Amino acid sequence: MPRRKTRQKLSTTISPESYAFLQAEVRSGRAENAGQALDRTVAAVRRARRRSELERQTAEYFAGMSPEAARQEAALETTIAGLAGEVDFDAG
User: Fold this and answer.
1) pLDDT of the residue at 90
2) 49 and 34 in contact (C-beta within 8 Å)?
3) Residue 32 C-beta-side C-alpha neighbours within 13 Å
C-alpha cells in the first residue's frame, strides 16, 4: 500500500485481540507497522462493503426486470457463454 504524504494521527485504545492482530500482520511482513496494518484492514472492509452493495444492486436490477428484458438478458448470456467457450486462453 503506497504511503501517503499526509496521514492523520489517531490516538485511541483497542481490544487486546485487535492489537494482537495488527502486530501479527507486522510480524508476518504483510504490513510495515501497525498503522499500515490498520489501513490495510480498513481497506479490506471497505472493499467487502462495496462488493456487498454491488451484489444487492445487481439482484435488485434483475428482480425488477420485465419478462421481455429478462428473455433478452438470457439470450445474451447464452450467446456470450458460447463465444467464451471458443476462446483459446492458452494461445499467445
Assistant:
1) 79
2) no
3) 4
